[in-house]
Amino acid sequence: MEFAPLNEVRCELGEGPAYDERRDALWYCDIVGKALHRAELATGRHRQWSFASEVASCGVAESGRVVVALRDAVGLFDPETGDFSELASIERDRPHTRLNDGKVGPDGAFWVGSMDERPTKEPIGTLYRVDASGNVEPKLDGLYVSNGLAFTTDGRTMFHADTRGPWIDRWDFDARSGQISNRTRIAHPDDATGRPDGGATDAEGCYWSAGISAACLNRFTADGERVASFPLPVAAPTMPCFGGRDLGTLFVTSLRHGRPPELLARYPLTGITIMARSPVAGAPVARFRDL
Question: Is there a catalytic annotation at residue 197?
């Protein structure tokens, strides 16, 4: 794949790209920059909104608002008014953790995990399910860095990763109840192959994982076989996302903050969201059910 910059906006820690099919736009976060970005794909127009804390991940809501995970809260952001309405606080009493990767599930809830943000990490992170009423349900604990959430087109499978595990799991998913079951460890990507950061699924049921340690994008079957690996022009890719009207474009965010100068010189696009035509279309991502 031939990757090119989406625009000239450089994030310190780009994350959480989410395609908005109604606006034909890509939403994405800069965690360190405490900002939410929107790029309109047809016009190239870009907007940015600043927040008081880190902006960890996001998703598109039925109402047209954006569900946003901040450092210790999940809420709804209205881009027309600039208003943010908190739905729930999460781990506000835990100084060593913050929220991280999140995605709207086929059940219409926002799934988001936490992480230990200290350099020497401990397994104190948790995966949560948050619905529009503000109900927060812990789903899985014992995580170092919760990451890689993605769901298959039929809504029956969830993928989830731990960047410091490092591992990728597959779960059975019930879109009616939001219950997960039958946890299966499918892969243990290492530093050389690319520790798993954010993820996405394609129309063929495969799982795409940002290999943050290896400047690549890995494609796995549902059983964990790595069937392709694509080199990227960014040093530390953080999350892929399928978008465009046909879901045939891949967008990838990346981490610039803390990377050594020699690495940034080798990968000058690091921090800029990149895009390429994909060899396979992506799976659509559900909208947060706030209506």
Answer: yes
